[in-house]
């Protein structure tokens, strides 16, 4: 790469072109330790001008560019491919692009550079009594560019929608180095295609997001957090429905099974707070009146409740039981977890969850399912532990078979990345997929951006 390397050094400085194996290693393995890749260099630009200049150098030399934000993605899209395939490639990290613009408290929006973390954006908004509407347990590392590129869902989606719904404007660098800037705080602005909406969920395959103008929301009035131990999945759905009927706003509705709660107790930092029961629901609600009394009344009238604990929000200790799942699962096994993220029509959830829990009995391979997720959105994270490597596709297909039969989605919020490219046909028709390919080829004709992601 030497000619190219000196051009890159010229743009971002010597300290920000990493070529040494040790210096690059953290950028080449994903959060789960499941995907690792090969690159000739890691390049860390600071400004949109530097990103554009790096892309121009790479495009002229046909060098592939793998884009990385906080590297918390769960589908392998944040790291380069595992084989060189005769291609030169760089990882472009947004780690140094962390600027935040001043909050606009009247327009209720803020601009953030792609590498700013979700926690930093939220803390910045909080100074003005506002809140970033997207929240996820990876908030301290996940970045603005990453949540937009994956169209992340998270725990507040039930209240405020996914990341796409939070975007007012975007700045991005196209595969030829052109800077695209659709930047306006206008809430209503219908002039043609929704380019920011297109880049949301594009997983770095269409352009490099460099800055995002995000909508902010008011934080909820006083909230109450309940963890309820339940006999049946249907009891969880009924409780959510009754909370709505009582005029409470659902701020979050998260599902756990006793296996997951026990795993967090064993490998995480939080002991169970309720009596043992097959299922647990974490419900966070807000309301204008005496929310705590409204919740107590709700629990008194509800069916199937084995036990319940409630606390005024934010109730971080209660939340740890739910948010500790991902790390506890990662610690509980030495073999890679088969990590799936599926959704179902909400009315099918009791049936779907029963089928998923029954899988070990129907499969000829070892597998320990831990299910949890954003039940209010119909989104269940299916984590299959202790699966022999050679059986990973078999168990994945068994889960996707349930998804297919019940009209669900093979990717609710994490995206396709490298992990699920073989199965996109289960989520989109041949014409849909061909249309996506037309868009990809138009915006990235040399196929340089995030090779192997989304399209395989
Ligand atoms: P990365 O992991 O670095 O990248 C993810 C993808 O986005 C890659 O394809 C990458 O190439 C692309 N990308 C990153 N930055 C850019 C950019 N600037 N321009 C173009 N493409 C880019 N996800 C959810 O949806 N909901 C959750 O509730 C949730 N909870 C999580 C909890 C934990 C503990 C962990 C570890 C992960 C969780 N995730 C969740 C997954 C992950 O945090 C999200 O996918 C997040 O959006 C990734 O952001 P990131 O900055 O880490 O992106
Ligand atoms: C979550 O909701 O905690 C996540 O999406 C992470 C996971 O699936 O492990
Ligand atoms: Zn999730």
UniProtKB/TrEMBL annotation:
Gene3D superfamilies: 3.30.465.10, 3.30.70.2190, 3.30.70.2740, Uridine Diphospho-n-acetylenolpyruvylglucosamine Reductase, domain 2, Vanillyl-alcohol Oxidase, Chain A, domain 4. Keywords: FAD, Flavoprotein, Oxidoreductase. One of its GO terms (molecular function) is FAD binding. Its cofactor is FAD. The keyword Flavoprotein applies. It holds the Pfam family FAD_binding_4. Coiled coil: none annotated. Residues 35-219 form the FAD-binding PCMH-type domain. GO terms for biological process: respiratory electron transport chain. InterPro entries: FAD-bd_oxidored_4_C, FAD-bd_PCMH, FAD-bd_PCMH-like_sf, FAD-bd_PCMH_sub1, FAD-bd_PCMH_sub2, FAD-linked_Oxase-like_C, FAD-oxidored/transferase_4, Oxid_FAD_bind_N. Belongs to the FAD-binding oxidoreductase/transferase type 4 family. This is FAD-binding oxidoreductase. It comes from Gordonia oryzae.
């Amino acid at each position: 790469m030497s000619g190219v390397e000196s051009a890159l050094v010229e743009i971002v400085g010597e300290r920000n072109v990493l070529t040494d194996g040790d210096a690059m290693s953290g950028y080449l393995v994903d959060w789960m330790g499941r995907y690792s890749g090969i690159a000739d260099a890691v390049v860390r630009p600071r400004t949109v001008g530097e990103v554009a200049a790096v892309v121009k150098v790479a495009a002229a030399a046909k060098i592939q560019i793998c884009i990385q934000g906080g590297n918390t993605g769960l589908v392998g899209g944040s790291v380069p491919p595992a084989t060189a395939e005769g291609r030169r490639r760089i990882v472009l990290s947004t780690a140094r692009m962390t600027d935040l613009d001043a909050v606009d408290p009247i327009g209720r929006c803020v601009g953030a550079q792609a590498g700013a973390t979700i926690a930093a954006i939220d803390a910045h908004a909080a100074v003005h009594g506002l809140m970033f509407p997207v929240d996820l347990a990876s908030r301290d590392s996940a970045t603005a560019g990453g949540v937009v590129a994956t169209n992340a869902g998270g725990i507040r989606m039930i209240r405020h929608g996914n990341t796409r719904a939070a975007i007012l404007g975007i700045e991005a660098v196209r595969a030829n180095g052109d800077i695209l800037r659709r930047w306006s705080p206008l809430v209503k602005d219908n002039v043609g295609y929704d380019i920011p909406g297109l880049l949301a969920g594009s997983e770095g395959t269409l352009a490099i997001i460099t800055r995002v103008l995000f909508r902010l929301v008011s934080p909820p009035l006083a909230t109450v957090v309940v963890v309820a131990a339940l006999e049946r999945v249907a009891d969880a759905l009924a409780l959510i429905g009754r909370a709505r009927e009582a005029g409470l706003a659902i701020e979050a509705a998260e599902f756990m099974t006793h296996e997951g709660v026990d795993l967090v107790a064993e490998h995480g930092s939080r002991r169970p707070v309720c009596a043992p029961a097959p299922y647990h629901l974490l419900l966070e609600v807000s309301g204008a009146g005496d929310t705590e009394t409204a919740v107590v009344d709700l629990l008194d009238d509800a069916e199937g409740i084995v036990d319940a604990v409630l606390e005024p929000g934010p109730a971080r200790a209660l939340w740890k039981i739910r948010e500790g799942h991902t790390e506890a699962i990662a610690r509980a096994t030495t073999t890679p977890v088969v990590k799936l993220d599926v959704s179902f029509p909400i009315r099918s959830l009791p049936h779907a969850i029963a089928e998923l829990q029954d899988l070990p009995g129907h499969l000829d391979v070892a597998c320990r399912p831990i299910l949890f997720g954003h039940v209010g959105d119909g989104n269940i994270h299916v984590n299959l532990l202790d699966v022999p490597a050679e059986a990973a596709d078999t168990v994945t297909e068994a889960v996707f078979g349930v998804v297919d039969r019940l009209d669900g989605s093979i990717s609710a919020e994490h995206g396709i990345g490298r992990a699920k490219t073989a199965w996109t046909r289960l989520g989109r028709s041949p014409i849909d997929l061909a249309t996506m390919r037309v868009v990809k080829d138009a915006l990235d004709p040399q196929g340089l951006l995030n090779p192997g992601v989304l399209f395989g």
